[in-house]
Design a protein that fits this description.
Elements: E1 5-10, H1 12-29, E2 36-41, H2 45-55, E3 60-67, E4 80-83, E5 93-101, H3 105-116, E6 121-129, E7 142-146, E8 152-153, E9 169-172, H4 174-178
Parallel strand pairs: 2-3, 2-5, 5-6, 6-7
Antiparallel strand pairs: 1-9, 3-4, 8-9
Helix pairs in contact: 1-2
This protein binds xanthosine-5'-monophosphate and magnesium ion.
Xanthosine-5'-monophosphate (XMP) binds near residues 103 and 152.
GO molecular function: glycosyltransferase activity
Subcellular location: Cytoplasm
Keywords: Cytoplasm, Glycosyltransferase, Magnesium, Metal-binding, Nucleotide-binding, Purine salvage, Transferase
């Protein structure tokens, strides 16, 4: 295990089981449709690629990069578009795939944005939910698992761009980010 990890919350096997359960629900709910999967970069990349393969049905994929975090472990409250979609969302059924919902600001902003762009439907699939962090009222339609109010990394999630490639999700040792504050 990586030395900066305090403890592992979810092994790759745990994540695969969570993903399979979500994929079954999504496959049933979107049967006969062609949803546009919107992967929120970079944190959701691993989850999205595993999820769409587990769904194994009609889906298109696009990417959006938004930022509310910088390199800190606390939300700045601002949401910025760093990379917009290539695809038009007008009239489309959207499935936003996110790694973790914390304050809810990112998804609140994105839902509002896609509504103004005339999406037909908007649903959210989040691997993790951190309900204690919530500042604005937003909920994911598909939630993999609920996590405590600790900073988690791995399986796409980073601290200062590190740890994204860990195959598991773990709690980062607070000393790692306290040292830099
Ligand atoms: P909001 O606060 O808008 O934030 O719901 C969602 C984004 O914040 C990041 N985030 C985390 N990233 N470990 C991370 O690596 C965490 O514990 C964590 N909590 C929030 C994440 O990028 C998410 O997309
Ligand atoms: Mg993110």
């Amino acid at each position: 295990m990586n030395d900066d990890i305090l403890r592992v919350l979810y092994s790759k096997e745990d994540i695969d089981a969570i993903t399979a359960r979500l994929a079954d629900q999504i496959k049933a709910d979107y049967a006969g449709k062609n949803p546009l999967v919107i992967c929120i970069l970079k944190g959701a990349i691993m989850f999205m690629t595993d999820l769409v393969r587990a769904v194994d049905d009609y889906m298109e994929i696009d990417f959006m990069d938004v930022s509310s975090y910088g390199n800190a472990t606390e939300s700045s409250g601002e949401v910025k578009i760093l990379k917009d979609l290539d695809t038009s969302v007008s009239g489309r059924d959207l499935l936003i795939v996110e790694d973790i919902v914390d304050t809810g600001r990112t998804l609140f902003y994105l839902k509002k944005l896609f509504n103004t762009r005339n999406a037909r439907s908007i649903k959210i699939c989040a691997l993790m939910d951190k309900p204690e962090g919530r500042v604005v009222d937003v909920h994911a339609d598909y939630v993999g698992t609920t996590v405590p109010n600790e900073f988690v990394v791995g399986y796409g999630l980073d601290y200062a761009e590190k740890y994204r490639n860990l195959p598991y999700i773990g709690v980062l040792k607070p000393a790692v980010y306290q040292a830099e504050e």
